[in-house]
Design goal:
- The complex is a heterotetramer, with two copies of chain A (369 residues) and two copies of chain B (333 residues).
- By secondary structure, chain A is of the alpha/beta class.
- Chain A is 46% helix and 9% strand.
- Chain A has 14 helices and eight strands.
- Chain A has a six-stranded parallel β-sheet with strand order 1-7-8-4-3-2, sandwiched between helices. Chain A has a two-stranded antiparallel ribbon with strand order 5-6.
- Chain A is globular, with a radius of gyration of 22 Å.
- With 333 residues, chain B is an alpha/beta fold.
- Chain B contains twelve helices and 14 strands.
- A seven-stranded mixed β-sheet of chain B has the order 3-2-4-5-7-6-12, sandwiched between helices. In chain B, strands 9-11-10-13-14 form a five-stranded mixed β-sheet, sandwiched between helices. In chain B, strands 1-8 form a two-stranded antiparallel sheet.
- In chain B, strand 6, helix 7 and strand 7 form a beta-alpha-beta unit.
- Chain B is globular and about 60 Å long.
- Chain B starts with a strand and ends in a 12-residue tail after the last helix.
- The chains are: A alpha/beta (369), B alpha/beta (333).
- Chains A and D meet through helix 4 and helix 14 of A and helix 11 and helix 12 of D.
- The complex binds thiamine diphosphate (TPP) (2 copies) and magnesium ion (MG) (2 copies).
- One magnesium ion binds next to strand 5 of chain A.
- One thiamine diphosphate sits at the interface of chains A and D.
Chain lengths: 369, 333, 369, 333
């Protein structure tokens, strides 16, 4: 790594943390009240979510290794950032995710095999956006931030109570589109939450290459209300998201959250992180593991952690088995699908192309061609 | 009633805004100013700032936020101020707008209309006279409309807005002031417009769209003087291309000239010539030829008359396919 | 104008002013020392520059009205922002202007008729960028900011002492490219000055539509050292530019200046500002006129203002007469130029296209075609 | 010595960096990682971070800053990580890079090479398998190179970097691992590569480039079995198109099949068919036809084998122009 990117300017914004590494609750004047009403059962549910999610992620990686998926983008280490935020949303808040928000989609009810079907190359989209209020996953870095801005403008125009939420990474903040999205959302004071998972890396590039300030400080410059939170602290993420959504619902406009986390795994199954980052960094972050953190907290609270863990484990086992079964039996799509949904109303050249190709295939099978 | 193309477009937007509250207009300077071409004149005052929206100066932002609005159930109509400012939005147009219906397996509709005043001939500086339609013709998932007449401007814009697919709507800006006696009526059907035979003739099929159609109408008269009958076809829609109409004509005339302002190489003319050669090979008496802009960046305005297809170049091409001038291929290259 | 854009967040950065409206020097701890060495003669030269420039601008507007130019983008009111900044640069600092920086190009030695030839539609570029160290004028809003970032990266890579300077407007700050340029320049700590003339309007759009914070504050969020200055105060502009360039030359990276000014005229000769802005605003800004300000200052200093003004007037008269003469006699370009410089090395299709067309024209003149 | 295309490209960059200190590489992940395809492997270590530059994640930023570097006298070589991520840079490519030489009346040179790994067939997710070459072929001011072989990869990349004009350099990513016995030698001339006849044959001219050329080589053998002689031409350069070589061949064979992965409508195949019809009209025994990707967004990878031109589709097209299958036009549409 080059020296020129090390001296990042000290940020103005503090990093909110509600749980320290030992799982103790640390007070936070601004965010504490957003935890009001959260029960031990809720915490246990967070734990189950994160454990199941980690298992889903592991299973997907394994399935990729076995040739069942074309690729997979692990979320290992980002469970709290995803679960803490999505669990703070309402079901009718509309989410615009990138390609790594498996946890967000799953928590909203998308089936694991539907999630994976896209990575298998069997389909272009794993869910119906209007059913789960999550847009199609986005691969083009940063594009979805503008869609969220537009959706938020729509909420504002029609007087809705919802919030549009864009998820993206630290690398994405360098794209023009993300910056334009901040500008649009700010200009119309639209109810949009920009949720940035700063996992320290954009493939092989450290976050300091993208920004010499804290990413959260960047957003402030746009006049967007911003929080920087410990992204491995599910309570801090949850509380900040609650705060941001409340801000939007009060008509106060867009917000930004930088969730400081770490991509513990490879960028995708095609990536080899040993080529560009030191093991020491990984070790440092292991200590901050989001699941351990919550387990510690439940322990501090004196809860029956083991039974919660057991329950989570059972759910994870079941999910993994079902998932493997579903994926390994997933049929390939029919060739006719190639031509479907290119247009919402079939047009003549589209119709002919389909007809010709299916005829060609049929002739071929007849041994004619 | 005599109406200009500008007024027809304005009325088309007004009627769409009136009939469907989900229609919203987005663009730079389209609100208070009414657009640099005044196409949206008076609409913000009439429908309010939540229906006619002045946007920050960012084309990717405009198209990207229109996509978000479509996710929310809106029917956004976007104005790109000039053709040459389409490109900052290219990624949103090509990777998002064009593909989202396919990506979502039909669950998300993208009824977004992107209005682009295009083409040259108005003495403008760089980036104000481009014809980028071929880029979108090559991009699956988009429809591309290119009206040439006052009536079509009204009707086709209504159709574009009603269409559940994204439509890139090219307005021939140098014809904005053209007038016609027309009654502006709400179209019955959406879908994509078909090509239209504007003049029936026996000798040469001449195909154009948008700003060049007026030139082709002049050519009909000029050719008549020379005893040549031109069958003139206005394509109207560039994607999907309605080449059945063109093929029917070429089967009759045996000769084809395609005209557009855009650069020649890999332009829409190439596609038309290639397809017509496929479907009409046995009928062709001469290779289809093209009259187009040159393969150069759009030139400074004091040279643009050379760059643009004009009556002389079209007639020269007609003579060429009639095998009346054998020495060289001239303006048609 | 809509109400939603009125409550712009109060900025953090102060607006530097060295001359108040009456022409009195107001102290400024940070910028004062950048005026060291500036003589009365220098001030008189600034005055001459601004007077000549205003005349050039008026003459161009008149020539456009008379059909000699296709279009013109007046700079009326922005004379101090342009002259103050460009006079602070070194000749080998490389400037990336937009379409309104007539003053910048002219001050660097570009002839008035060469400037206007582009607006006449006679040529694509009025100067040789490598001769005057100014890139071709840029019409696509914001693009040139990235070119400046890249040029600055080059200076950094080859250890040069120069600075790359990008000029753009308030509207341009909404473009992805300008934001990406800030990110690139900051990432490499490249010697780049982003000079934003906030003239309050982007055609019909007020600056509050583009940004709810002061534009200068936006730049700070990127970790770019920023000044906000009174753009109608030639001394403040000059001093801030000196400060920014020194910062860059000391290897401290990119800087940003927001020069707060006003577009007193129309956006271009094709524009009618009465459709979207109140006369009262114009009247308000007339009081802050940059030329009057400097005249007042020279008066306060007890200088022989009248003789300076006379000298400026004479220079302006001469320029205007020469310019009119040159433009009205400017020949149209030859058709062969259409095909030249499309490629630096002519290739076969390009050669044939030229040959065919020139032959076609020749035949045509012979009455053959 | 047996070399892979990846290694040849890597060596080409290394040699260019060594010979001219003004050559700099820019891109996402090209430094420490050596690029997601490892084409720049080891180069940052060898030449330093001011020659091999990891950039922030912004394609417009990459191309725009390369333009600035070119103004400063550099010869930037840009990597776009995957074809589908070219579009955010489209404005800088089309309105700036392509036009600056013209705009500056020849005073500014833009010797920028934009490397784009392109095409499908590697089982990737969306946006990783596109073939956007037609967009650039339609854009005056750019050159477009598309090598197919290991040797060409080396030589043409050197030529691209040496060229004073901007070159969009398309690398056939699914052939990166192809190997050949070659000696990598510095080319003598710059300018644009000419088309190359890879196989001499009497019956049908088959034209392709980049990733499809391997398929055409297979077709030669398959056709031979059927007693058909294919004349296979590798275009190598897509702008300027060297169609003299193709025309010479078609004048001999009378039949033309053009093959590419990109969508068919307004693709480069259309231009080739249109031009060849113009120049060879009297020689053609059948309309030129195309074997291309469909007019659809690039499909999910489990369907991509249907979308891509393959041996069967090429042979089907050969049979069609040989008038051996009359019932329908099938894969060649
Ligand atoms: C426009 C665009 N450019 C390049 C890529 C290739 N790419 C995929 S992921 C990635 C890094 C993204 O980093 P970040 O935004 O931090 O998200 P993360 O992967 O860390 O979740 C890159 C460069 C892309 N998908 N889209
Ligand atoms: C990419 C792009 N979009 C739109 C335009 C049309 N346009 C020309 S100037 C302008 C306003 C620019 O405002 P600002 O940046 O504040 O500069 P100013 O004109 O005030 O100097 C617009 C929208 C353009 N030139 N480029
Ligand atoms: Mg990241
Ligand atoms: Mg302005």
């Amino acid at each position: 790594m080059s020296t020129k990117h090390i001296d990042v300017a000290a940020g103005c914004l503090p990093t909110h943390q509600l749980l320290n590494v030992s799982g103790e609750r640390t007070p936070d004047e601004e965010l504490d009240h957003h935890l009001t009403g959260l029960t031990e059962q809720d915490l246990a549910d967070f734990l189950r979510d994160m454990v199941v999610l980690r298992r889903l992620d592991n299973e997907a990686t394994a399935l990729q290794r076995q040739g069942q998926l074309g690729l997979w983008a692990p979320l290992l280490g980002q469970e709290a950032a995803q679960i803490g935020s999505v669990r703070a949303t309402q079901d009718d808040d509309f989410i615009f995710p990138s390609y790594r928000e498996h946890g967000v989609a799953w928590a909203r009810g998308v089936k694991a095999e539907d999630l994976l079907s896209v990575w298998r190359g069997a389909t272009a989209s794993g869910w119906d956006p209007h059913e789960v209020n999550i847009a199609c996953q986005q691969i083009v870095i940063g594009s979805q931030a503008l869609h969220a801005a537009g959706y938020g403008m729509g909420i504002k125009f029609d007087g809705g109570e919802q919030v549009a939420v864009a998820y993206f990474g630290d690398g994405a903040t360098s794209q023009g589109d993300v910056n334009e999205a901040l500008i649009f959302a700010a200009s119309y004071q639209a109810p949009v939450l920009f949720f940035c998972q700063n996992n320290q890396w954009a493939i092989s590039e450290p976050v300091a290459l993208q920004s010499r300030t804290q990413i959260a400080d960047r957003a402030s410059g746009f006049g967007v209300k911003t929080w920087r939170v410990d992204g491995n602290d599910v309570l801090a993420v949850y509380a900040a998201t609650k705060a941001a959504l409340a801000h939007a619902r009060h008509g106060l406009g867009p917000t930004f959250i930088e969730a400081v986390t770490y991509r513990m795994g490879s960028h995708t199954t095609a990536d080899d992180p040993t080529r560009y980052r030191k093991n020491a960094q990984l070790e440092e972050w292991k200590v901050k593991d989001p699941i351990d953190r919550l387990v510690n907290h439940l322990t501090v609270l004196g809860a029956d952690v083991q039974s919660y863990q057991q329950r989570a484990q059972n759910a994870a086992d079941k999910l993994a088995a079902d998932l493997r079964e579903a994926i390994t039996n997933m049929p390939d799509p029919e060739p006719s699908e190639l031509f479907e949904n290119v247009y919402s109303e079939v047009h003549e050249p589209n119709r002919r192309e389909k007809e010709n190709y299916l005829q060609y295939l049929a002739d071929f099978q007849d041994g004619e061609a | 009633m005599s109406t200009s193309m500008m007024k027809a477009l304005n009325q088309s937007l007004r009627d769409a805004l009136t009939e469907d509250e989900k229609v919203v207009l987005l663009g730079e300077d389209i609100g208070t100013l009414g657009g640099v071409f005044r196409i949206t004149d008076g609409l913000k005052a009439e429908f309010g700032e939540h229906r006619v929206v002045d946007t920050p100066l960012a084309e990717s932002g405009i198209v990207g936020s229109a996509i978000g609005l479509a996710y929310r159930g809106y029917r956004p109509v976007v104005e790109i101020q000039f053709d040459g400012f389409t490109y900052p939005a290219f990624d949103q147009l090509v990777s998002q707008l064009a593909k989202l219906h396919f990506r979502s397996r039909g669950r998300v509709k993208m009824p977004v209309t992107v209005r682009i005043p295009y083409g040259g001939g108005i003495g403008s500086p760089e980036h104000h006279s481009e014809s980028p339609e071929a880029y979108f013709s090559h991009t699956a998932g988009l429809r591309v409309f290119a009206p040439s007449s006052v009536e079509d401007a009204y009707v086709m814009l209504r159709q574009a807005i009603d269409c559940d697919d994204p439509v890139i709507f090219f307005e021939p800006k140098r014809r904005y002031h053209e007038k016609a006696e027309v009654e502006l009526r709400t179209p019955e059907k959406t879908g994509s417009p078909k090509a239209k035979v504007l003049n029936v003739g026996d000798d040469v099929t001449v195909v154009g769209y948008g700003p060049t159609v007026y030139t082709l109408k002049d050519a009909v008269l000029a050719a008549e003087d020379e005893g040549i009958g031109l069958e003139v076809i206005d394509l109207r829609c560039l994607d999907p291309l309605d080449l059945d109409t063109v093929a029917d004509s070429v089967k009759h005339t045996g000769k084809l000239v395609v005209v557009h302002e855009a650069s020649r190489t890999s332009g829409i003319g190439a596609e038309i010539c290639a397809q017509i050669t496929e479907t009409c090979f046995d009928y062709l008496e001469h290779a289809p030829i093209r009259v187009t802009g040159f393969d150069i960046p759009y030139p400074p305005s004091r040279l643009e008359s050379h760059h643009l297809p004009d009556l002389d170049k079209v007639m020269h091409a007609v003579d060429t396919v009639m095998r009346r001038n054998e020495t060289h291929t001239g303006g048609a290259k």
